[in-house]
Design goal:
24% of the residues lie in helices and 15% in strands. A hairpin with a 6-residue loop joins strand 2 and strand 3. It is of the alpha+beta class. The chain has one domain.
Length: 74
């Protein structure tokens, strides 16, 4: 199945995290970058989805993607 690509801003909204976190995850190898420069996109299927409680509007973040074996977090 081909990747479903979104911008860093869309990925940030989907995960409930800052854009900088999306960029860091990509640099650490947790998620895949598609494209270069301003055209970089990320596969939404690799991203943890935030959930929002419809009654309280409380946001719960999903677990971050795991680091590749042998990699270290920034």
């Amino acid at each position: 199945m081909p990747p479903t690509l979104v911008s860093a801003a869309d990925a940030a909204y989907y995960t409930g995290r800052p854009v900088g976190t999306i960029w860091r995850w990509a640099s650490e190898g947790r998620i895949t970058r598609y494209g270069e420069g301003r055209n970089v996109r990320y596969d939404v299927r690799e991203l943890p989805c935030k959930t929002v409680d419809e009654w309280t509007d409380e946001v719960t973040l999903g677990a971050p993607p795991s680091l590749p074996e042998g990699a270290r977090a920034a």
